[in-house]
């Protein structure tokens, strides 16, 4: 008999439950993750803490083992799917802050890249902080960004890339904005695990954002600066 079968999530204390959620995320158990999220919510955890401590914490372990060749793509996909299950529950709650709309952002993962968990997290956190977010998804060629910017007229363009092979495409997008005389119309924020501040500067972005929380803070700073400039 395996111990696993006997585990009743609601009987675990908070620390044990989070540990168990790490295991369940690792094993791609979506229903268990959803149950764990709901239990933590019932226990008064904030959606933000559940997201960062239980889900992102678990995904970090998955990331390490993927890097080290212990997990493979199918397992990682299952883990990502389980994480999405939890995020679906948290998303409306994170957005429910009642904060006034502070700005608008178009965000998408660049061409050749299908990673979207980080981007989705940034979107959720931005919404939670009162931003309107238009998510144009994954694998976006420059045309998609231009179209969305034209239609949506956001304050911010956000781009995400998780591969060293796709991150240079961010420069293609920024260079095209420059060519078309549009660069100064938008605050350009970039993020993704392989990027760093130097890269952000080198490609002409306004800022590199290490994580979703930094993205929110950076977006707020730049938008209020822009509004002050317009007012002044
Ligand atoms: Co991919 N993958 N993957 N993968 N994958 C990485 C990125 C990798 C580092 C794994 C590894 O080898 N250690 C590696 C890249 C190596 C490199 O480029 N140097 C890699 C590889 C190689 C690949 C494939 C090529 C594997 C293959 O097929 N052989 C392939 C590529 C597919 C493609 O895109 N064309 C591939 C596929 C996949 C899956 C489909 C299986 C799955 C993606 C599922 C999905 O996204 N729906 C997947 C996953 C899950 C990962 C890891 C394990 C986890 C990524 C993740 O979701 N992290 C990843 C390893 C790792 O990063 N540790 C890996 C959690 C997320 C919350 O963090 O995305 O960094 P992150 O986002 C953060 C910040 O970076 C920042 O805020 C977020 C929240 O805090 N941020 C932004 C991100 N975007 C932002 C945008 C902003 C601001 C902040 O704009 C304003």
From TrEMBL:
<keyword id="KW-0479">Metal-binding</keyword>
<keyword id="KW-0170">Cobalt</keyword>
<dbReference type="GO" id="GO:0046653">
    <property type="term" value="P:tetrahydrofolate metabolic process"/>
</dbReference>
<feature type="domain" description="B12-binding N-terminal">
    <location>
        <begin position="8"/>
        <end position="102"/>
    </location>
</feature>
<dbReference type="InterPro" id="IPR006158">
    <property type="entry name" value="Cobalamin-bd"/>
</dbReference>
<dbReference type="InterPro" id="IPR050554">
    <property type="entry name" value="Met_Synthase/Corrinoid"/>
</dbReference>
<dbReference type="InterPro" id="IPR003759">
    <property type="entry name" value="Cbl-bd_cap"/>
</dbReference>
<dbReference type="InterPro" id="IPR036724">
    <property type="entry name" value="Cobalamin-bd_sf"/>
</dbReference>
<dbReference type="GO" id="GO:0032259">
    <property type="term" value="P:methylation"/>
</dbReference>
<dbReference type="GO" id="GO:0050667">
    <property type="term" value="P:homocysteine metabolic process"/>
</dbReference>
<comment type="similarity">
    <text>Belongs to the methylamine corrinoid protein family.</text>
</comment>
<dbReference type="GO" id="GO:0046872">
    <property type="term" value="F:metal ion binding"/>
</dbReference>
<dbReference type="GO" id="GO:0031419">
    <property type="term" value="F:cobalamin binding"/>
</dbReference>
<protein>
    <submittedName>
        <fullName>5-methyltetrahydrofolate--homocysteine methyltransferase</fullName>
    </submittedName>
</protein>
<feature type="domain" description="B12-binding">
    <location>
        <begin position="102"/>
        <end position="232"/>
    </location>
</feature>
<dbReference type="Pfam" id="PF02310">
    <property type="entry name" value="B12-binding"/>
</dbReference>
<keyword id="KW-0808">Transferase</keyword>
<keyword id="KW-0489">Methyltransferase</keyword>
<dbReference type="Pfam" id="PF02607">
    <property type="entry name" value="B12-binding_2"/>
</dbReference>
<dbReference type="GO" id="GO:0005829">
    <property type="term" value="C:cytosol"/>
</dbReference>
<dbReference type="GO" id="GO:0008705">
    <property type="term" value="F:methionine synthase activity"/>
</dbReference>
<dbReference type="InterPro" id="IPR036594">
    <property type="entry name" value="Meth_synthase_dom"/>
</dbReference>
């Amino acid at each position: 008999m395996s111990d696993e079968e006997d585990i009743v999530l609601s009987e675990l204390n908070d620390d044990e439950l989070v540990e168990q959620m790490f295991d369940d995320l690792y094993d791609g158990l979506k229903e268990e993750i959803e149950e764990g999220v709901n239990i933590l919510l019932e226990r008064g955890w904030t959606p933000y803490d559940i997201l960062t401590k239980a889900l992102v914490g678990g995904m970090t372990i998955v990331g390490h083992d993927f890097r080290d060749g212990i997990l493979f793509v199918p397992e990682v996909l299952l883990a990502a799917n389980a994480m999405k299950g939890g995020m679906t529950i948290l998303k409306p709650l994170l957005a429910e802050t009642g904060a006034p709309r502070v700005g608008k952002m178009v965000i998408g993962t660049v061409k050749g890249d299908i990673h979207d968990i980080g981007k989705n997290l940034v979107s959720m956190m931005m919404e939670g902080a009162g931003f309107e977010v238009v998510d144009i998804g994954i694998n976006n060629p420059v045309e998609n960004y231009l179209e969305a910017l034209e239609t949506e007229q956001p304050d911010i363009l956000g781009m995400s890339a998780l591969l060293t092979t796709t991150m240079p495409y961010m420069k293609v997008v920024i260079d095209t904005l420059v060519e078309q005389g549009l660069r100064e119309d938008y605050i350009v924020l970039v993020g993704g695990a392989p990027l760093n501040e130097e890269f952000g500067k080198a490609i002409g972005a306004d800022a590199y954002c290490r994580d979703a929380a930094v993205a929110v803070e950076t977006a707020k700073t730049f938008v209020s600066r822009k509004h002050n400039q317009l007012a002044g």
